[in-house]
Design brief:
The complex is a heterotrimer of chains A (about 350), B (about 300) and C (about 260). By secondary structure, chain A is an all-alpha fold. Helices cover about 65% and strands about 0% of the residues of chain A. Chain A contains 14 helices and two strands; from the N terminus they run αααααβααααβααααα. Chain A has helices at about 5-30, 40-55, 80-100, 105-125, 125-130, 150-175, 175-185, 190-195, 200-225, 235-250, 255-270, 280-300, 320-325, 335-344; strands at about 135, 225-230. In chain A, α10 (about 235-250) crosses α11. Chain A is globular. The termini of chain A are far apart. Chain B is mostly helical. Chain B has a single domain, classed as ABC transporter involved in vitamin B12 uptake, BtuC (Orthogonal Bundle), CATH 1.10.3470. Chain B has helices at about 1-30, 40-55, 60-90, 95-115, 140-165, 165-175, 175-180, 185-215, 220-235, 240-260, 265-280; strands spanning about 120-125, 130-135, 135-140, 215. In chain B, a hairpin with a 2-residue loop joins β2 (about 130-135) and β3. Classes of the chains: A mainly alpha (about 350), B mainly alpha (about 300), C alpha/beta (about 260). Chains in contact: A-B, A-C, B-C. The interface between A and C is large, with 56 and 70 residues. The structure holds adenosine-5'-triphosphate and magnesium ion.
Chain lengths: ~350, ~300, ~260
């Protein structure tokens, strides 16, 4: 396998993983209208949880300096399943608390602050996840035994399968009455409630689905990279997802995937081989600026994105009588028929 | 006992600086009714401006550096507010877009700072190491001066809000924007000046915070914003006086928490306060203003 | 045993920091009736509807729906118990098509649970709801805009969509806040017929806030009058026309 092939597969793997995350972010942001600028925290939870489930206990590892909780030494897929489960649980706590009372910009502000606060905490408090050094030493399935080029293909297979699974699940949700109700809550929470939708339940469902995708994506990222630290979940990573959804098209799964591809390959990968000038930190900063400007440009000129949200398509309706339409299955009304009879 | 009291003293110093920052944040939110995620990046900018004004070739004394930094940050805030944010909010008033926009703007700014100034740490100190004891408290000369500057800034805000027409217009816009518009108040001018004033506050807070922690890099603002937002939310977002109380509580609690749980875990306490507020009392102590105050019951 | 009134409001009061918008209102709307609620601007009519429907749960007093105590139940629980309402400014889901706007209101479509959505066990329900939505659109002559975005409607169309959406959820009690506002004269007569037919055909109980008295007279058996937060009179509009308090506060004297 040539270096180029190896690189292309690496890019494809990250394309799949980022696509999973973009789908998750879109489920919250585009589908349910939750501006979760702490989405990346969910990804980090998945990655850390998978990390501490995979590696050996802290004592003595990393040259004796590492300190972290857990260290179960579990193999794939148990470490990944653990990571996903912990993320969904964390999403339940965070979403359940945040979505209970907060709306709109207040919700966005508090989630943002929570994200920053957790970043500060994990960096400063070493016993949790080894501070800014992070957790290293987990290995992806087959990485230790397989030939590197074979392993690349294996992991690409795993990532692509995960992407397909998440995509199928999400498409089933968004094209169902559940997805429709989420959109109603997104468009007008009060009017949705006036139509007997429970906004908290619907938003929490979207939040949990997003957490699920974050868990899958974060877990696989940690396994593939073989480590996870604070740099992996900076607000910049959240901007990448926001850009993917804004560029691709809010509220449309395929849009999120296309946007994720454009942002990832168009900006992050295309600029990777620029001759590095000066500070090694310069390139990431320039990339972030470019992505930020891309977001602003789309918001200014084409806020609906490249693949705008579409209307639902319906089959041809059957003809029924008006009385049937108005009196179909509903809450049983005592004495309803008599009253109608009386009036007529 | 002594240790508790002196820690309380450190907490009050922190609180004074935090109050300046939080008042700026909350005032800007109240008047413009949009969350500005880039506020922390203004703080960073202020710290760096003071650092450069004090270094070669300018070599300004620290007080002049502080003023230069505050004015430059005010100017930056005004420019961003007037020429980027306001046109944007007019073109895309939907909340979703506004939030996405200031978030993107925040990361653009912080990356610009990162690209120009790199990741290394700088040092900004105001000598004044001599320790004084005031009753039960101990503080260095520098810390006392920080408190004085912060209190002066807060007094300035108080006079602005209570004594001037501009301040009254700001409060009116914050309490009921539509009513303020209906009353024919000069919304545009007030908004522009609010960007300027809150930038001044961000710059001032940034410089003092940098001197407090001695060494800082371009992350100083983007992490400080955690405390700022929590203080503002605690006081009821949009309420400048509430923000002062919120900052006092957060500043003191997080210092006292250091004694109990250690420095690394002290953010946890602030974090718990924020989570408690989210679940139990989102409007903070004094009730939020503006759009956020309408919590649907659904 | 007598049938409980569809809606009973007892001593409801509500204020917005300081402003007493509704003061101690008590009223009853019998099953299957079509009642009106009138009063000058700022009388507290919309606020009363907000209290009843649970948009605003910060009120004092009690509310019963079909004999069940529903005091301070939030909006979605009221809706679940069969209370439908429209808002003074029509609320349409803007990033959904008109037909989707109706479909979303179908009561408890099976596919709203995560499991059912994933398994796809909601298609049968969907067919019936679709037929109902289409028929209701036809009833209001709206089939030509069925595939418009919710954001692409005229004010009058928005009102009709909101009303049709309510009908999708089989309400037993409907609160209408100025349904005729913004509707053209020709369509007003049509809307009045449709509302009357609705009331007759489904036995639904309607309480309507409206300033256009000709339609109130035309449709409502009994009318409540509110002024300055208080309920000041009740009766048929013909009776009310001669009541001093009502003339002074709302109708104005005919000589003016
Ligand atoms: N959200 C609010 N905040 C503060 N005061 C309010 C609010 N909504 C209504 N009010 C006040 O409550 C009183 C009653 O208002 P309401 O909207 O119920 O009147 P209304 O009878 O529906 O009038 P209209 O015929 O104009 O619709 C008014 O004095 C109004 O100023
Ligand atoms: Mg009204």
């Amino acid at each position: 396998m040539s270096a180029l092939e190896f690189y292309i597969i690496t890019v494809a793997i990250f394309g799949c993983l980022n696509g999973i995350l973009a789908l998750g972010f879109n489920m919250q942001f585009g589908q349910a209208g939750i501006v979760n600028l702490a989405f990346i925290v969910l990804v980090a939870v998945g990655a850390y949880a998978t990390g501490i489930a995979s590696v050996q206990p802290a004592s003595g590892s990393f040259g004796g300096t590492g300190t972290y909780i857990g260290g179960f030494g579990w193999a794939f897929p148990w470490n990944m399943l653990f990571g996903i489960a912990v993320t969904v649980l964390f999403g339940l706590l965070l979403g359940g608390a945040a979505l209970l009372r907060l709306r709109h910009d207040y919700l966005a502000l508090c989630l943002f602050a929570i994200g920053v606060g957790l970043q500060v905490l994990v960096t400063d408090y070493l016993p949790l996840f080894n501070g800014s050094e992070g957790i290293v030493g987990m290995s992806a399935p087959g990485q230790d035994v397989l030939d590197p080029s074979v392993f690349q293909f294996v992991f690409l297979g795993i990532s692509a399968a995960a992407l397909v699974i998440v995509f199928v699940i999400f498409t089933r949700v968004t094209s169902s009455p559940l997805g429709r109700a989420m959109k109603a809550v997104r468009d007008d929470e009060e009017a949705a409630a006036a139509n007997a939708k429970n906004p908290w339940r619907l938003k929490l469902t979207a939040f949990l689905l997003g957490s699920f995708a974050a868990g899958v994506g974060g877990s696989l990222q940690a396994l593939y990279i073989g480590g996870w630290s604070v740099q992996g979940w900076s607000p910049t990573e959240n901007l990448v997802l926001l850009a993917a959804v804004i560029v691709g098209g809010r509220g449309r799964n395929i849009g999120a995937l296309v946007g994720s591809f454009i942002v990832l390959e168009g900006i992050l990968e295309a600029t990777r081989f620029l001759p590095s000038i000066g500070d090694p930190a310069l390139l990431p900063n320039l990339q972030t600026i470019a992505i930020g400007l891309l977001v602003l440009a789309f918001l200014w000129w084409r806020p609906e994105g490249i693949l705008p949200e579409r209307k639902e398509r319906f089959a041809k309706p059957a003809a029924i009588s008006l009385t049937a339409a108005l009196n179909g299955p509903g809450p049983v009304v005592a004495g309803e028929t008599e009253r109608t009879a009386e009036k007529l | 006992m002594q240790i508790w009291l002196s820690t309380l003293g450190f907490g009050l110093v922190d609180a004074a600086v935090l109050a300046v920052a939080a008042v700026g944040f909350t005032l800007q939110f109240g008047v413009t009714n949009y969350v500005n995620f880039a506020y922390g990046d203004l703080i960073t900018f202020g710290a760096f401006m003071a650092f450069f004004a004090g270094g070669a070739p300018f070599g300004l004394p620290i007080w002049q550096s502080l003023m230069v930094a505050a004015v430059l940050t005010g100017a930056l805030s005004f420019a961003v507010g007037r020429f980027v944010f306001t046109p944007f909010f007019q073109r895309r008033p939907q909340l979703l877009f506004a939030l996405a926009m200031t978030f993107a703007a925040s990361l653009i700014l912080s990356s610009v700072w990162g690209a120009i100034w790199g990741g290394q740490y700088r040092e900004l100190t105001y000598g004044g190491e001599q320790v004084h004891s005031l009753g039960p408290f101990v503080a260095t000369t520098a810390e006392l001066l920080f408190v004085v500057v912060a209190l002066a800034a807060l007094l300035g805000v108080h006079l602005l809000l209570s004594q001037t027409k501009l301040g009254r217009t700001m409060r009116a816009m914050s309490d009921d924007r539509n009513l303020a518009i209906a009353c024919g108040l000069n919304i545009r001018r007030t908004t522009n000046l609010t960007w300027l004033i809150t930038g001044l506050l961000a710059g001032t807070a940034g410089v003092i915070q940098a001197m407090q922690v001695h060494t800082f890099n371009t992350n100083i603002g983007s992490t400080y914003v955690f405390l700022i937002i929590t203080a503002a939310v605690l006081g009821g977002i949009g309420r400048p006086y509430g923000a002062v109380i919120g900052a006092t509580i957060i500043g003191v609690t997080s210092q006292l928490a250091v004694l109990v749980v250690g420095a690394a875990l002290s953010p946890v306490v602030v974090f718990l306060i924020l989570v408690f507020l989210m679940v139990a009392r989102p409007t903070g102590i004094f009730g939020a203003t503006g759009r956020t105050s309408t919590f649907g019951t659904a | 045993m007598a049938i409980a009134p569809a809606l009973r409001v007892e001593s409801v009061s509500c204020s917005y920091d300081g402003v007493q918008a509704v003061r101690n209102v008590t009223l009853e709307v019998p099953q299957g009736s079509f009642y009106g609620l009138i009063g000058p601007n700022g009388a507290g009519k919309s606020t009363l509807l907000d209290c009843i429907s649970g948009v605003n749960v910060g009120y004092e007093g009690r509310v019963w729906l079909d004999g069940a105590d529903v005091t301070r139940l939030p909006l979605q629980l009221m809706a679940e118990r069969g209370l439908g309402r429209t808002f003074q400014t029509a609320r349409v889901f803007r990033r959904m098509s008109v037909l989707s706007n109706l479909m979303v209101a179908a009561r408890h479509p099976a596919g709203e649970a995560l499991g059912a959505a994933l398994l796809g066990t909601w298609k049968a329900d969907e067919e019936l709801n679709l037929a109902r939505a289409w028929t209701i659109l036809k009833f209001f002559d709206l089939t030509h805009i069925a595939d418009n975005w919710g954001s692409e409607l005229s004010g009058g169309q928005e009102r009709l969509i909101e009303l049709s959406r309510i009908l999708m959820s089989h309400p037993r009690v409907v609160l209408l806040d100025e349904p005729f506002a913004g509707v053209s004269p020709v369509n007003r007569a049509k809307l009045a017929n449709q509302l009357r037919q609705l009331s007759m055909d489904t036995g639904v109980t309607i309480l309507m806030v409206e300033h256009r008295l000709e339609w109130v007279e035309n449709l409502c058996e009994t009318v409540f009058v509110m002024a300055e937060g208080k309920l000041i009179a009740q009766g048929s509009l013909a009776q009310l026309r001669s009541e001093r308090a009502v003339i002074d506060s709302y109708l104005g004297s005919p000589t003016k």
